[in-house]
Design brief:
Shape: elongated
Strand content: 15-25%
Radius of gyration: 32 Å
Helix content: 25-40%
Strand order of the largest sheet: 14-13-18-19-20-11-16-17
Largest sheet: 8 strands, mixed
Distance between the termini: 146 Å
């Protein structure tokens, strides 16, 4: 009887456990089905985020100060980025703009000239304004139905439409998700609360990087972190080498203060699973756009003392600090109606107000430095600026050769003295600045006349004239007529591949942006007259 009772108890226990095991099995099946559906739904949202991020990197807007800008630097090949002269314009990446402004502000502070620092500070303000303006445009582009933005070829870009299409196509790969009802699909722009990657190089060498405590020196800047220089704030936008997923838990919505590049996809679907259960699936996925390397070379700065060098000007730095230049009041001129004097309707018209000669020199120098973007090495720039002017007389004419400054691909500031001035044609491009001030500087008991051309003072189609602030190549290749008399020797480890390519190939374009040797800024000190003679002539 006892044995029979034990068997009955076991049977009763099994009868009770079978339904429980069945329930657990069914629950497990449902959980697995939900997990699988959720993972596939998340994958669809991630694919959509990557698509939207890729589109954001292609959007190009026309900025009134910097011209065409985007998240990524793009070459001058687009049919939608033409200047008035019919030539394509480069697209400058926003981090390149920010990095250039920060680097130039560091160099300006190292030189110590108040006018140069003031001009660099204004450039920093414009960079921050452009970054927020671009972020506003990117945020608008993520709205459903928005198709007002284009790429460099003028083709419409609709991030919402492309991301939604990617999302639906990925849902179709699952038999049950393909029948799901999409309840929500939204795109938002923001930034990350943690540091992100960028492709923008830090200043070289490290001691000039001016990094705050807690930020380690590396090859590239961190994104979404304030990197102030003095009282000026600099935030870089997070950008990867290709569209990349990022942690959605660090996402912060665009606040009109931080440059924002991160796109967040929020999606919600209702789906019937194979277990005949209706579930609601939600997903938030974030992606970072990409940036390409900046490859545009800088332009040239020409310093000319054709009638001799004043004794007070022993270095380039002396031009920033000379008191006579600081006191000299001049009236800038701007070419209007075309290129002066090449176009028949062109004229040089006085700009509003007067300024000092030192301010105009500082502004032109900064605009030239700006053409090299983030490439210049600070130590090389400071060394050349403080070095004595090594003047090379022309043995045939007795006049002094022009001094040409440029930045090579390794960031070295180099100097050469070509036998002839390759920029002797005195064209001032439309909407660009110039100056001709007779007897405006008192140096060595003489009055000197100053001539100045700033051919990159204004950029873009809105303000830069028919060439949009992009100078043309010279009629002569100055590197080929230098007569083998470079003042600053190039490092043996830094051959000029760009220069070699430029000499070997002539492109059909009138304006070759990737050719070295284009003039950005020219400053000439000439025609000295004795002060006594000048005074006698006025009586």
């Amino acid at each position: 009887m006892r044995h029979r009772s034990s068997r009955g108890s076991l049977l009763l226990l099994l009868i009770c456990l079978v339904p429980l095991v069945a329930l657990v099995f069914v629950f497990a099946v449902k959980c697995v089905a939900v997990v699988i559906a959720h993972e596939r739904h998340v994958a669809a949202a991630q694919a959509a985020a990557l698509t939207a991020a890729k589109d954001l990197s292609r959007i190009v807007i026309d900025d009134p100060y910097f011209g065409y800008i985007s998240l990524a630097d793009q070459p001058p090949i687009g049919n939608g980025t033409l200047a008035e002269d019919g030539e394509p314009l480069p697209v400058t990446g926003i981090n390149t703009i920010i990095g250039t402004a920060r680097l130039d502000y560091i160099i300006a502070n190292a030189i110590g000239d108040d006018d140069l620092i003031s001009e660099a500070r204004m450039e920093a303000h414009q960079a921050r304004r452009a970054a927020i303006r671009l972020s506003h445009a990117l945020a608008k582009s993520l709205n459903q139905g928005n198709n007002q933005y284009t790429d460099l070829d003028g083709k419409k870009i609709s991030p919402y439409k492309d991301a939604f299409e990617t999302y639906k196509q990925n849902l179709k790969t699952d038999a049950y998700l393909s029948k799901a009802t999409i309840d929500e699909f939204t795109l938002e722009l923001g930034w990350l609360s943690k540091a992100a990657t960028t492709q923008t190089p830090m200043p070289k060498p490290e001691q000039y990087a001016s990094l705050p405590n807690g930020i380690k020196y590396s090859a590239t800047y961190p994104g979404f972190v304030n990197l102030p220089v003095g009282n000026e704030d600099f935030y870089f936008a997070g950008l990867a080498t290709r569209p990349a997923l990022v942690d959605e838990h660090n996402f912060q919505l665009f606040d009109s203060q931080h440059p924002s590049t991160i796109v967040r996809v929020s999606s919600n679907v209702s789906v019937s699973l194979p277990t005949n259960d209706d579930v609601n699936l939600c997903a938030d996925s974030c992606a970072m756009p990409f940036a390409t390397a900046d490859k545009q070379p800088g332009c040239c700065f020409v310093l000319s003392f054709c009638d001799g060098v004043p004794q007070r000007l022993r270095s380039l730095h002396d031009l920033f600090s000379d008191q006579s230049m600081e006191r000299s009041q001049v009236s800038p001129l701007t070419a209007s109606g075309g290129d002066y004097p090449d176009d028949t309707q062109a004229a040089l018209r006085p700009a509003a107000g007067r300024t000092t000669l030192n301010r105009m020199f500082a502004r032109g120098f900064l605009h030239w430095l700006r053409t090299a973007h983030t490439r210049p090495r600070v130590d090389s720039a400071i060394s050349v600026i403080n070095a004595p002017l090594k003047v090379v007389p022309n043995p045939y004419t007795g006049r002094v050769r022009p001094i040409v400054y440029w930045i090579d691909e390794n960031g070295e500031m180099l100097v050469s003295a070509p036998a002839e001035n390759p920029f002797s044609q005195q064209t001032v491009f439309q909407n660009q600045d110039s100056l001709l001030a007779y007897d405006s500087v008192n140096l060595d008991s003489k009055f000197w006349t100053v001539s100045l051309r700033d051919l990159v003072s204004r950029l873009g189609n809105q303000e830069g004239g028919k060439h949009a602030g992009q100078p043309l190549a010279p009629s002569k290749n100055w590197s080929s007529i230098s007569g083998g008399l470079p003042i600053t020797e190039r490092s043996p480890a830094a051959p000029s591949a760009n220069a070699a390519a430029a000499n070997a190939t002539t492109l059909p374009r009138v304006r070759n942006f990737y050719q070295e040797g284009r003039l950005a800024f020219e400053f000439q000190l000439m025609a000295p007259r004795a002060i006594s003679a000048q005074l006698n002539s006025t009586h």
